[in-house]
Amino acid sequence: ANWMESSRDYAREHHLSEQAFSSLAMGTIILDNELRIVHLNSVAEQLLENNQAIARVANRLRILSQNEHQRLQQALKGLVSESQQNIPQVISIARNANHPPLFITARRLPQRDRLDDSYHIALYMTDPELRQIDQSQLVMQAFGLTPQEARLVIALANGGTLEEFSRDTGISKNTARTHLYASFRKVGVSQQSSLVSHVIRAIYGL
After folding, report:
1. What are phi and psi of 92, to 5 degrees?
2. 189: helix, coil or strand?
3. Separation CA 151–CA 104 (nearest Å)
């Protein structure tokens, strides 16, 4: 049976996120626990077709560079492992000199989104050459943050402080700190500098 038919709710929710991702010019690929591609949106299809650095081969992702391919495989195997913490992985894929690299943020789908007893992985592909993406939407999807948490980490990534964020949004510093610690937990870091670098890599691929 087709995996999408196994849950009408999931399919409807997926359609909504599909529209959002397409408008954000973000490629979305869903892999099963065997790392086979079970779904990709139109942006992902376009990205896979229009570059020589990464391709779909026998329903799996293949990166031309052996080193980058091994890094991707290790990251994905870690994400499908029960024993590993679910920390999103950001991988850059070099292209030829005339194009900036592609960036893939990989995360394990939360338990509530699982389609059976095995883990699935969502990959979000961004291409700096495509139109500007909505940063907060990308950060929310890639790291599972709430809108307020996403706004906070983007403000910090842009050089802001916790105090400025709390003043600008009208929330207490304690609430801002709560958002910060929740973001630490979801991104899998324990320091603000690590949080910022993860988010900057996901958005800009730096």
Report:
1. -100, 145
2. coil
3. 21
Report the share of the chain in percent with pLDDT over 90: 11
- Residue in the block written with tokens 């896979």: 48
Query: What's the CA gap between 143 and 146, in Å, rounded?
Result: 9
How far is C-alpha 181 from the chain's CA centre? 20
Residue 20: its H or E element: helix 8-23
Tell me the per-residue pLDDT of 170-183, one tens digit each, with 9 for 90 and over.
999 999 999 999 99
Cα angle: 70, vertex 71, 76; to 5 degrees: 95
Q: How far apart are CA 184 and CA 127, in angstroms?
A: 26
Q: Are 152 and 179 in contact (CB under 8 A)?
A: yes
Which residue type, as a one-letter code, is found at position 56? R
pLDDT at 114: 53
Which two structure tokens, joined as six digits, stand for 155? 């403000």
Q: Which two tokens stand for residue 85?
A: 């913490």
CA within 13 Å, CB half, 122: 25
Q: Which two tokens stand for residue 128?
A: 């700096």
CA distance linking residue 143 with residue 182, whole number of Å: 11
Q: Mind listing the pLDDT tens digit for each residue in 30-86? A: 888 888 998 888 778 888 887 788 888 899 999 988 998 998 898 888 888 766 666
Tell me the two tokens of residue 37. 């591609």
